[in-house]
UniProtKB/TrEMBL annotation:
Organism: Arabis alpina
Transmembrane portions of the chain: none
Domain of life: Eukaryota
Name of the protein in its database record: Ribosomal RNA methyltransferase FtsJ domain-containing protein
Domain Ribosomal RNA methyltransferase FtsJ: 3-58
Keyword Transcription: no
């Protein structure tokens, strides 16, 4: 998509899921963007593998033709600027593994959305007091259907 609609100098952001091919994706994006950052926003759960690929300053290789994209992605040079290497050669693993710059956004010491925390004490030392809702929850539209189904099942069993 990027190679067909983005102008030179453009930016691209995509939600990704970190996994075994993240290094390969990073190297492929580096072919088209000099600045690639993988970031995890503070709002994302710590247990989630989601992240965002933030790519800046779109600049395709000289003479690039979008029809040749598949052939280009089969050969990826190292991000340090080394010569092109075949992705199937395994250079993304072992001692040659590419380590991706990863940015964790926000305060890492902040609250974790996967945990429960004790309620804070009030300034005067009293404990937290729960208040009733201003308006009770609305009945779901399917509530009547569930009541009818239950009544039908009861009359069938008797």
């Amino acid at each position: 998509i990027v190679t067909h609609i983005l102008k030179e100098g453009g930016k691209f952001i995509a939600k990704i899921f970190r996994g075994k091919d993240t290094s390969l994706l990073y190297c492929q994006l580096k072919l088209f963007f000099p600045t690639v950052t993988f970031a995890k926003p503070k709002s994302s759960r710590n247990s989630s593998i989601e992240a965002f690929a933030v790519c800046e300053n779109y600049s395709p290789p000289e003479g690039f033709n979008p029809k040749d994209l598949h052939r280009l992605l089969e050969k990826v040079g190292s991000p340090s600027g080394g010569s092109d290497l075949d992705c199937s050669s395994g250079w993304l693993e072992g001692p040659n593994k590419v380590y991706i710059p990863f940015l964790a956004c926000g305060d890492l010491a902040g609250y974790d959305s996967d945990r429960s925390y004790p309620l804070p004490k009030e300034a005067d030392g009293s404990s937290y007091q729960s208040l009733d809702p201003v308006q009770p929850p609305i009945a779901p539209p399917y509530k009547r259907a569930l009541e009818l189904k239950k009544a039908s099942a009861q009359s069938f069993n008797t």
